[in-house]
Structure formats: structure tokens, C-alpha cells
């Protein structure tokens, strides 16, 4: 898929790969190139600098990242923005239309997790971990639970709020000061045995540090469940 020249109006995009009027086929022509969905995923919680996206996806070359971002801008999925002072840094962020892809990512993720071939031992980014929580939370279990939750993942910090309408998560700069619950670990993978494997932090090697009222912590952890594997 070429860049600005072909994506300004969308012509030469629909039908280029498949010659098919199906909207799903068109969707694949828009976001189906290698790395495109992962770039979108890394922007799902807010705007990020080029260097931050690159650091989250170290296998992705700077050249390819530049190409993907320019293609997504041409399609109207990503836009550039300027952070306010004192930072004044340029960031890439999803447009309103682009943010609508979170539901696409959630459904794709839930579907793919049913495969026995999914390998949770592969690397995971902090943003991917946060989005997995929004994906795998069962809203029917929330009930009257309301809590502010801090997630410290290495040098990245996120603030979450769970209430009747679900779980919202956003970057938290230097971290939350007084959350109801705090989860801290060096790696995103350290969260997985506790959140999705249903082990205690001790059973998981105490790599995930947890603070807060024990009953509230357990109620929060009980909100998450992996989908049943195919054939399971």
C-alpha cells in the first residue's frame, strides 16, 4: 500500500488487494498490513511520541513505522498533535474514527485467545496488558464495586477506574498518589499469572506487588477471566 498519494481520498485502496465489495475485505485493506494493528494498539490509550512507539515495538524498524504512521494519517485513522508546554512534543494519536478500533481489537483478541496455540510467554507491551484488562473484564461481575486502581509496569504508570459501566484506563505520568489498589511489577508478563492464571502473588513468585484492602483486591481480580479454549 503506497502512502499519501493513494490514501488522500481512499481511491485505489478499496479493491486493491481483493477486488471485493465486502466491508470486511475493505477493513483488511485499510489496517491489514503487517504492524499496522500493533501501531494502532500502542496509540489506543492516548497520543505517543514516535520514539515511544518505536521503543514499545523494538523489532519494528524506524522506516516501517514512519511508513505505517503516514499511511494511517492519510487514511484518517491517525493524526499529529502537539502536547502543551512545558513538553510541547509532537505526538501521534488516533482520530475519533481510529479509536473505534478498540472494539475490533477486543473481539479479535477474545477470539484468538480461544486457540490452544496462543503463547502467553511471548513479549507483551504495557499498553497491550492494559487493553487486555479492558477486553477480558466481565462487566456483569462488577456489581457495586468502585475503585481507583494504579498499575505500575516498570517505568510506565497507568490509572484505572472500575465502576458499574466498566474499566477505564489512561496513562498516569509519574503515577497515582492514593489509589484504592496498586499493582506493581517490572514486566507486563508478571501480571498474567495473577490476573489470568488465578494464582496468588506468592504462588506466582511475588513478582507482582499488590497493596490495598484484600477484599477489594480480590473482587477486582475476580472480574477477569480467559475465554474457554477451542475443544476445551
From TrEMBL:
The keyword Transit peptide does not apply. PROSITE patterns: HTH_HXLR. Keywords: DNA-binding, Transcription, Transcription regulation. Residues 22-120 form the HTH hxlR-type domain. It comes from the Bacteria. Pfam families: HxlR. The keyword Flavoprotein does not apply. PANTHER family: TRANSCRIPTIONAL REGULATOR, MARR FAMILY, TRANSCRIPTIONAL REGULATORY PROTEIN. This is Winged helix-turn-helix transcriptional regulator. It comes from Novosphingobium album (ex Hu et al. 2023).
Amino acid at each position: 500500500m503506497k502512502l499519501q498519494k493513494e490514501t488522500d481520498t481512499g481511491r485505489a485502496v478499496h479493491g486493491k488487494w481483493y477486488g471485493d465489495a465486502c466491508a470486511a475485505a475493505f477493513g483488511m485493506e485499510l489496517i491489514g498490513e503487517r504492524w499496522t494493528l500493533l501501531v494502532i494498539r500502542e496509540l489506543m490509550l492516548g497520543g505517543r511520541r514516535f520514539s515511544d512507539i518505536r521503543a514499545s515495538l523494538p523489532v519494528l524498524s524506524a522506516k516501517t513505522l514512519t511508513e505505517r504512521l503516514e499511511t494511517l494519517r492519510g487514511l484518517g485513522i491517525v493524526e499529529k498533535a502537539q502536547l502543551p508546554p512545558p513538553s510541547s512534543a509532537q505526538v501521534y494519536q488516533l482520530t475519533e474514527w481510529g479509536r473505534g478500533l478498540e472494539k475490533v481489537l477486543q473481539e479479535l483478541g477474545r477470539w484468538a485467545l480461544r486457540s490452544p496455540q496462543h503463547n502467553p510467554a511471548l513479549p507483551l507491551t504495557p499498553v497491550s496488558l492494559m487493553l487486555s484488562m479492558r477486553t477480558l473484564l466481565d462487566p456483569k461481575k462488577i456489581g457495586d464495586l468502585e475503585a481507583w486502581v494504579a498499575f505500575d509496569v516498570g517505568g510506565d504508570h497507568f490509572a484505572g477506574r472500575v465502576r458499574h459501566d466498566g474499566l477505564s484506563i489512561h496513562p498516569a505520568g509519574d503515577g497515582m498518589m492514593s489509589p484504592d489498589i496498586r499493582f506493581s511489577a517490572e514486566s507486563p508478563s508478571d501480571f498474567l499469572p495473577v490476573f489470568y492464571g488465578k494464582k496468588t502473588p506468592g504462588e506466582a513468585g511475588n513478582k507482582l506487588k499488590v497493596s490495598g484492602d484484600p477484599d477489594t483486591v480480590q473482587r477486582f481480580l475476580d472480574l477477569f477471566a480467559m475465554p474457554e479454549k477451542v475443544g476445551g
